[in-house]
Amino acid sequence: MTSDFLTFVLIGFLAQIVDGALGMAFGVLTTTSLLAVGVPPAVASAMTHVTECFTTAASGLSHLYHRNVDWRLVVRLAPAGMIGGALGAFLLSNIDGEMIEPIVSLYLIGVGLFILYKAFQPKWPRDVRDWIIPYVGGIGGLLDAMGGGGWGPIVTSSLLGRGHDAKKVIGSTNLTEFAVTTVISATFILTLGWSELSSAIGLILGGVLAAPLGALVVRKLPVKPLMIAVSLIIIGTAAVRVV
After folding, report:
1. pLDDT at position 84, please?
2. Which has the least CB within 10 A, 27, 57, 137, 212?
3. What is the pTM of this model?
4. HSE toward the beta carbon, residue 182, CA cutoff 13 A
């Protein structure tokens, strides 16, 4: 039991370091890791999102402190993301776990490929009036809930790929994710109950310990090599569940 707890702490810590630096990948890295150790898809997604209530709050506050947040972007992303997230959590909670697991793993492979594609995609300037922002938020929330991750890879990488300011996108999507993941977590708790989610405590501890470091890492590490590394980790880990 202690080894399981420490494993969850380590998963949460490493995933949050990457997420804080890239503005993405906590959910997909955590979910693929939980699936790899035998956690059912709905419970894995629920554990991930309950944990993200704490990690996104800590990370969002850190980005606020470092002035990485554009509130106009947050206001455009949050409502659609919350609606999409609630719908996705409700659907996943009412689908058989064994049936959905290969689908979730294939989705995570797709997210990994998407991150890899975005790492090499050319960028051009965009501002916060970009028409696509609310739609990206809604789709990102829906797929994040159903796949146990995807808000960052879908939303952050899409906005980065369209040329929005990298630091503002990463900081704003991290802060917005707190609202989205809180709605998703509440939906999971109402449908699954808290007893299924008690193991999230280890993830929470590891993630919260790492959260303040992400805003510092984003200033130091080049984004492209980190995106490539994360995409390969996600693809490799998820592929094991499909084969």
Report:
1. 93
2. 212
3. 0.73
4. 13
